[in-house]
Amino acid sequence: MFEAVISAPEKGHLADYIPALANQSKNLFAVYIIDEKGEVLTFGDFKGVLTLQSISKVMSFIVAADSLGIDQVLEKVDVEPTGDPFNSIVRLEVAEKGKPFNPMINAGAITVASLLPGDTVEARVKSVTDFISQVTGREHSVNQEVFKSEMETAYRNRAIANYLKANDYLRGTVEEALETYLQLCSIELTTEDLARLGLFIATDGLLLTVTENKNLITRKTARYTKALMMTCGLYNASGKYAATIGIPMKSGVSGGVLCTVQNGQIEHLQGRMGIGVFSPMIDEIGNSVKGMDFLQRISEHYNLSVF
Amino acid sequence: MFEAVISAPEKGHLADYIPALANQSKNLFAVYIIDEKGEVLTFGDFKGVLTLQSISKVMSFIVAADSLGIDQVLEKVDVEPTGDPFNSIVRLEVAEKGKPFNPMINAGAITVASLLPGDTVEARVKSVTDFISQVTGREHSVNQEVFKSEMETAYRNRAIANYLKANDYLRGTVEEALETYLQLCSIELTTEDLARLGLFIATDGLLLTVTENKNLITRKTARYTKALMMTCGLYNASGKYAATIGIPMKSGVSGGVLCTVQNGQIEHLQGRMGIGVFSPMIDEIGNSVKGMDFLQRISEHYNLSVF
Amino acid sequence: MFEAVISAPEKGHLADYIPALANQSKNLFAVYIIDEKGEVLTFGDFKGVLTLQSISKVMSFIVAADSLGIDQVLEKVDVEPTGDPFNSIVRLEVAEKGKPFNPMINAGAITVASLLPGDTVEARVKSVTDFISQVTGREHSVNQEVFKSEMETAYRNRAIANYLKANDYLRGTVEEALETYLQLCSIELTTEDLARLGLFIATDGLLLTVTENKNLITRKTARYTKALMMTCGLYNASGKYAATIGIPMKSGVSGGVLCTVQNGQIEHLQGRMGIGVFSPMIDEIGNSVKGMDFLQRISEHYNLSVF
Amino acid sequence: MFEAVISAPEKGHLADYIPALANQSKNLFAVYIIDEKGEVLTFGDFKGVLTLQSISKVMSFIVAADSLGIDQVLEKVDVEPTGDPFNSIVRLEVAEKGKPFNPMINAGAITVASLLPGDTVEARVKSVTDFISQVTGREHSVNQEVFKSEMETAYRNRAIANYLKANDYLRGTVEEALETYLQLCSIELTTEDLARLGLFIATDGLLLTVTENKNLITRKTARYTKALMMTCGLYNASGKYAATIGIPMKSGVSGGVLCTVQNGQIEHLQGRMGIGVFSPMIDEIGNSVKGMDFLQRISEHYNLSVF
Question: Which positions bind substrate (chains A, B, C, D) (predicted)?
Fold first, then answer.
């Protein structure tokens, strides 16, 4: 049924501002869906890894919120959506005091990266890779080539980070926050890993691999996370996709999308689900062209929208 | 259980920039909940009417989208949330071409008001009061005193409307669009009416009063409406309430809130529900203080959040 | 020596957003220079009239400042230059309190128009035409066709005026201020009249026609006027022309330019001078293409710059 | 006659955001005036040094313009005044392409610093200290303590520099441009040196110490410099002081002011003059309180304004 999407001619472009992403193959496609019983459905034949890019903003927020408490995080970053481009500086200066609007835009994510537990860049990055490993059941590491290529051209992000520091919204040094943020963007995983993270969020923090029913994160953290994904997860197209797809999602310019389904049925899968999507060609706004197309069709067909 | 909220000391302020609203009693409170079987639950003892104010933005959008088609409406207004104050002009000029961001901010709602069916202000206003009457089963009219007091001090809204006209986002004249918009803001109804409208949206357009199962609006219109309420329904606090309450809502500075519940159980009520809330004291952002407090508690207690 | 400028092929465009200006001949050219002894030098053969457009901002400021006192005017408008387009709204909202930056941009000029002496639009317009007549020695009237065509499409100016009113920077009603402003823009005069006004400002308020040496305006008003012309008189190119021409000037989209020379010698003319220039083709920024070209050459050749 | 200013109680504050400036004595005062014949007039008894701070923007511009040619510099920075705070980022993003508005705001000055001749920070700083030494006849060096304290807290400037780099308005690295800029800000000199620099600019590049009449800089560079000082030299108060003082000036937050007089008579001094002023208490905008007060009185008394 979704063959038409998968085999359609490639549209969009690769994320050319990150040199390491500009060279990959254009026609990769992979979808991995998993439900709370562990049932699995896949589409496409790509089995490799992608880097998290902006999807890492979700994981950083979860780790920071659960270690510090949401209220501490909210002192440094709001949770309000914004219609601005994802890396806007204007908004920082116009708004009172320069407080970043939400953890899903670069300014907010750089602030959150600085709040992660640990006193060094390594410790902060490890707090997130450890969390991801706990959910996926395997090790994750930073793609150093991608990280380095992002660091070399991070002028706008470094401008934002300095601006945040000037207004006292960063813990530690500017370079620590920036390096932490960009290392998190460069963590590698598969669509299976994305799906397991999506399911983890959908279940408010349960692990498939653990028999006892203990939520690893608070219900409050899970709710804030899903609300942020719904209202700000897809850059400037968040509102459109809330209407046409209607599930909490977060995309990255690597072409990945992380999705959570609160309740649904897709073939033999049922109840809460996580969906990991990957297709590297992105549109002007930064979302995977085929990925979003696929998600619109599957949401429509299986009536997945919360609305 | 909610007595503590209802009887708490009044906080916030009345909407003093609208003279007719600045004189009402501070301690009014009313909640009306109705489910898809017609079961009802109420709190508070206020039985009177309130004016829709910004809640009218929801009805205008439904009528315009269902008469013109969503795609026609989207040519003149986006559906992207924004972290800006509800009456910001800055955003219009900074964004390319001055297109209003969404129908829940004043700029977008003035544009939508100009797109309503009919060639006169009267006809356009009637298209909305007729729609509301169809849902509530009774007549609705414009409170002329409130309308006039708003017209007299509508400098910012008139600035916005002229700006939209200059950029070709208004049908007809500036004064027609402005008058239509402000008349819609001044439509009177009760919390029961709000609840019935909320239920109508929750059911994607079913009427309680009609036995046959025919949706009056398209599923697409209903979804866009709910997504807009979730992402932009509560001014600059939309993100916060998406996290803490988690249902599609729209508030007005008169102190009313319209809510839809997709699926829940509140005492003997079940399934899809509409909730109408009214308490006139509002906070800095424009939302009813007691109203939002009540909604946070009832959502928490009955687990109404979609997240 | 200036023949090359005058006979050069036409570049730029007519001010097409004002219907009445979009139809005139493209190749008109006129320059009138007069010194404090009444000696005259002219270039070009056009003898007709032009409308003041933005040049009227200078006259309004002089009349308002001299009747109210500069300090009263400064309570409602600053005198700081700005690099923004002449009709920007953004600046009004970003700056604290929405105070207009200076009387040479539309926002400031609309405020100043509302401060003119008199209780009606007619009286306020007359206060300025009377002032001009006193200087030029002949009657001046408003071109009603130009005025009407500007009123019909004045959406941005009306947006600005409503915004100013919302922030309490307008005296009287929005429509009065707007109508006064646009009538002033539509006052007709010749390049000789412009030159006499330029000389009047250069001499801090002396009249050629009067033998006794009595300044009609205060030295303070004259200085503020010249400083405003130098720092903000040519829209977004004020800085460039301060460097390359270096005399106080004010242009209008009708293609006119009013100039004052503090001290100089041009052929047989000496000392303080006024220059009136007219050529209707304007550049992207709004300044007369041939007019500015002529002024650069004459300033260079006769060393007229104050710098 | 100016005793009242000099002995008035101190108002304003020291530039506390630069630690090394926050500790100096409040009641220092020095004025040095020199004319083209070398005649001198002084006020106040302070003989020490100050750091250039923003006054260095004038020297950088002169050196860059004279070595590269004005047109090359104008490709990377405009010469248009702006009403924004001196370190605004907003303007960079709103304006097309992020081009800095003029060399007198931080963004423009950081760009100009990157264009100075030489391939290293040292060489670029030396190009400016050499120029200053040529004019003053003595060696100048960077106050390393001030430079270091500025580098440590340069978050906003580093944000601006990264933003400029992202938009391709910087030559070399961000850190080179920033370091060059802040070293230039920390060059030490006396009010006599400031006066000699002011005279040098007033005479379009003549040196008192040299008998032959050879201008060291082009007339074009001198004119652009004076126009920039007049339209943008005093931060957001440039327009006000153009009206009330009316000579090209540039101030710094160290409390210094550099002034040029094109033609005047002050006691036994005549013709072109330079004025150096120093008093460390500055107002909200960043200008020396006593310094500006003194300049307003002397300009008024000796009629120094070009208007």
Answer: 54, 106, 150, 157, 181, 235, 253
Taking alpha carbons only, the member of D98, D5, D89, D87 closest to residue D53 is: D87
- pLDDT tens readout for residues D234-255: 988 999 999 999 999 999 999 9
Average pLDDT rounded to a whole number, residues D254-280? 97
Q: Do B89 and C88 touch (CB under 8 A)?
A: no
Do C58 and C181 fall into the same domain?
A: yes
Q: Sort out which chain B residues have CB atoms less than 8 A from C92's CB and list them.
A: 89
C253 catalytic? Reply is yes
Q: pLDDT per residue over C47-100, tens digit each?
A: 899 999 999 999 999 999 999 999 999 999 998 886 454 555 555 555 546 788
Give the closest of A93, A160, A162 to D88, CB-based. A93
How far apart are alpha carbons C76 and B141 in whole angstroms? 41
Q: How many domains does chain D have?
A: 2
Mean pLDDT of chain C: 91
In this structure, is residue C278 part of a structural domain? Answer: yes
Q: Is residue D113 part of a domain?
A: yes
Percent of chain A with pLDDT over 90: 76
The pLDDT value given to residue A5: 82
User: Bridge partners of C257?
Assistant: C251, C277
Residues A74-132 have pLDDT tens digits of 999 998 886 454 555 555 555 546 788 899 999 999 999 999 999 999 999 999 999 99
Paired tokens of D75: 């490709």
Residues B193 and B286 in one domain: yes
Domain holding D144, by residue range, is 53-185
Residue D267 burial (10 A CB sphere; 0-12, 13-18, 19+): exposed
At residue A218, the pLDDT reads 95
Per-residue pLDDT tens over the stretch C11-44: 999 887 777 777 788 889 999 999 999 999 999 9
Query: Is residue D225 a contact partner of residue D58, using CB atoms and an 8 Å limit?
Result: yes
To test the contact with chain C by mutation, choose from D70, D235, D303, D306 the residue with the greatest count of C C-beta atoms within 10 A, namely D306
Tell me whether residues A242 and B262 touch, CB distance under 8 A: no
Chains that touch D (3 or more CB pairs under 8 A): A, C
Task: For residue C115, give the CATH number of its domain.
Answer: 3.40.710.10
Active site residue B155: no
Contact A162 D158 (CB under 8 A): yes
| Dist CA A252 CA A282 (whole Å) | 9
Domain boundary at A185, A220, A239, which? A185
Q: Are A134 and A257 part of one and the same domain?
A: no
| Residue D154: both structure tokens together | 């340069």
Question: How confident is the model at residue B227, as a pLDDT?
Answer: 97
**Nearest-neighbour CA in chain A from B25: distance (Å):** 32
Q: Which residue has the higher pLDDT, B264 or D98?
A: B264
The pLDDT assigned to C211 comes to 67
Min Cα distance D297 → chain C (Å) is 14
Give me the catalytic one of A32, A163, A169, A181. A181
D95 touches chain C (CB under 8 A): yes
Quickly list H helices, chain A.
Answer: 3-6, 56-68, 70-76, 90-94, 106-115, 121-136, 144-152, 155-166, 174-185, 191-202, 219-232, 238-244, 289-302
Q: What is the ipTM of this complex?
A: 0.93
Q: Do D243 and C223 touch (CB under 8 A)?
A: yes
A169 annotated active-site: no
Interface C-D: count of C-beta contacts within 8 A: 108
Are C131 and C251 within one domain?
no
Residues from chain A contacting residue D165 (CB–CB below 8 Å): 155
Check if D88 contacts A (Cβ < 8 Å): yes
Active site residue D26: no
Question: Is residue A232 predicted with pLDDT exceeding 90?
Answer: yes
- What b-and-e string marks burial along A9-44, b requiring 16 or more CB atoms within 10 Å of the CB? ebebebbeebebbeeeeeebbbbbbbbbeeeebbbb
- Measure CB to CB from residue A82 to each of B82, B228, B307 and give the nearest one: B82
Quick one: which of D223, D224, D222, D203 has its CA closest to D214?
Answer: D203
The verdict on A58 and A175 lying in the same domain is yes
- D65 with D213, same domain: the answer is no
Residues in A touching B217 (Cβ below 8 Å): none
Question: Mean pLDDT over residues A239-263, rounded?
Answer: 97
